[in-house]
Write a structure and sequence with these properties.
The chain is an alpha/beta fold and 327 residues long. Helices cover 44% and strands 13% of the residues. It is built from 13 helices and ten strands.
Length: 327
């Protein structure tokens, strides 16, 4: 993240989406939801995303339900065109919070860690391995239910802080285990802390200290994705201590560039407008604009939609190879 490159990287390191679409699953004969639960299938599908699209990374897992499921929430595992989603959690107060002796043995956490080990063995140092952990504010909001959690911010702030302390410990332990298993980069995915959901003041009151604590406890490369138009809190995000900040297509790159210090900016192609519904030419034009606006790493904001055509993903890669060279 700190070296000088001849060309910008083109990746899918961040966001609630990932690097895999339906076409890739069909090409490999490896499908969701099986690949969410089997470490070998998860690793092989992650490698296929590089081989079939040219994206310069491999990334696991493919969903953001791992932590919630590990702590007792029920998931709908979807299908090959639909990511898993949380459908039920039963946390009602801080009295329900109980940290097990070894949280790394819960649910699919061991599956993800084993998939990272397999990736390290298969790709060596050829590609960066990135893995994601859901941010503490988002884990807490999922355990409680987003509506209840937002009410607590106003009525029971002490409950919010208790859940954030609990979830922050989960994030740190899971992220450290991912580094030990072979990840080069940890991505913290924190969509519930978006300005679309909470005010800048609430971000500073609750989410900021938890995210800073996570960054302070991780020794490797750390990225953060919050989502939405983060311009009102970009200075706060820059102060968290992450090496890279992923932003959506709604964010003005030239406006935030002077505000992020040494952090790299990742983004900011729309996952819907052109990648899903546009042509390869549309995608290339959008990638060219992101480069001109000053992104440091070109990628789809929030990850790749499962139904996005591979030809459009490849167009993004081709655009960066054409337009992304440094002087």
């Amino acid at each position: 993240m700190g070296g000088k490159l001849d060309r910008l990287p083109v990746t899918s390191l961040t966001g609630a989406g990932g690097t895999v679409n339906v076409e890739m699953q069909k090409a490999m004969g490896i499908y969701w939801p099986d690949a969410h639960k089997d470490p070998e299938k998860m690793a092989n599908l992650a490698i296929a995303s590089y081989e079939l699209s040219g994206l310069e990374c491999v990334r696991v897992p493919f969903d953001i339900g791992v932590e919630a499921e590990a702590f007792g929430c029920k998931l709908n595992f979807g299908g090959m065109d639909l990511q898993p989603s949380v459908i039920q959690c039963n946390y009602n107060s801080p009295n329900d919070l109980k940290m097990p002796g070894d949280p790394l043995r819960l649910g699919r956490i061991p599956v993800v860690l084993q998939a990272i080990r397999i990736l390290r063995e298969k790709v060596g140092d050829f590609l960066p391995i990135v893995s994601n952990v859901i941010g503490p504010f988002t884990i807490a909001s999922v355990l409680v239910g987003i509506d209840n959690f937002m009410k607590w911010i106003l009525r029971k702030p002490e409950y919010v802080k208790s859940f954030l302390d609990f979830s922050t410990e989960i994030v740190i332990e899971f992220a450290k285990a991912q580094y030990r298993s072979g990840s080069d980069i940890i991505h913290i995915c924190e969509p519930s802390a978006s300005p679309s959901l909470i005010s800048p003041n609430n971000f500073r009151q609750f989410a900021k200290s938890a995210l800073t604590r996570v960054a302070d406890n991780l020794g490797g490369i750390r990225l953060i994705y919050i989502g939405g138009n983060v311009e009102p809190i970009i200075s706060d995000i820059a102060e968290l201590g992450y090496d890279g900040i992923a932003v959506e297509d709604s964010v003005n790159i030239s406006k935030i560039k002077p505000l992020v210090g040494n952090a790299k900016i990742l983004g900011n192609l729309s996952p819907i407008k052109n990648l899903l519904f546009g042509s390869p030419e549309d995608v290339k034009a959008e990638a060219k604009k992101a480069i001109e606006d000053g992104v440091d790493i070109v990628e789809i904001s929030g990850g790749i939609a499962p139904l996005a055509p591979t030809i459009n993903i490849k167009a993004m890669v081709e655009a960066v190879k054409e337009f992304g060279h440094r002087a």
